[in-house]
Structures are given as C-alpha cells and as structure tokens.
Amino acid sequence: MKIVLDTPVLAAGLLRPHAPAGEIVRMVSGGSLRLCFDARILSEYGRALARPKLRLNRERVELVLHQIVTCGDMVAGRPLPASLPDVNEDVFLEVTMAGEARRLVTNNPKHYPQRVRQGLVVSPQELLDLYRREM
User: Fold this and answer.
1) pLDDT of residue 80
2) What span, in angstroms and rounded, lies between the C-alpha atoms of 135 and 113?
3) 2-134 maps to which CATH number?
4) What residue segments make up the domains of the chain, in order of their start?
5) Residues 134, 66, 130, CA angle at the centre, nearest 5°?
C-alpha cells in the first residue's frame, strides 16, 4: 500500500516507536508500506528531523532520508485546483494524488477540508486499522 506521511507523523514515529506512528515507520522500513514523496517533502523531512528539540543525531537523520529515497517512490506532485486552507499542506495532498497513494497519514486532519478527505486523509491509528482489516 502506497502512503504519504505528514512530517509530524514521521517525526513521532521515530521518537515513539511503540506508538501508532512508530508502527507505521517500521512498516515503511520493512517494506509493508511504500512511502511516496517529492523533493519538497524530502527537504521538509530533513529540516524537521534536524531540529535540536527532536534530539536525533545527524547520522540517524541522514540514514532515514537515505532509506526514504532508496525504498520510497519519488513522484512529481501536480498543483491542486484550489489551495488548502493551510497552503503548507498542499504538497502532501499533491503527492498523494500524483503518486496514487491510498492514504495521506496526518495527525492534523483538520488541515484538510471534508470535501478533500473523502477517506483519503487518515490518522496513524486509522491507517493501522485499515491495514489490518485488509490483510
């Protein structure tokens, strides 16, 4: 199953490996889920994971980014017909649609209006529940 991870979900998954986001990161790492991204998302991941408050050392951040590039699907996002209320979230929906990802996983579904969500935007726990039902 192809997915897109919002940056806070990736960070939470690295910091809390036993939480739902951590399980998703492990599933991506193990190949059960395939991560879609573009250069903008990869850049955002790098900036966010390098923040001192996360306390992730440089080598670990580089390893995570390398694994994303090596094992994920880089896609070219297409502009949305209309921007989201928070234009910083556009990139995640653009990549979800362009990469034909099944789900966009976020801790902040309110950033995506109901007309956009339509089962596409889910929380980490919702993704895990969906994955388990489909297996």
Assistant:
1) 81
2) 29
3) 3.40.50.1010
4) 2-134
5) 10
pTM of the model: 0.92
Residues 121 and 127 sit within 8 Å (Cβ to Cβ)? no
Q: What is the pLDDT of residues 46-98, one digit of tens each?
A: 999 999 999 999 999 999 999 999 999 999 988 887 777 776 888 999 999 99
Beta bridge partners of 36: 73
- DSSP states of 54-85: G---HHHHHHHHHHHHHHSEE------SS--S
19 three-class SS: coil
CA separation for the pair 135, 39 (Å, rounded): 31
Say if residues 69 and 87 touch (Cβ distance below 8 Å). no
Residues 107, 8: Cα–Cα separation, whole Å: 7
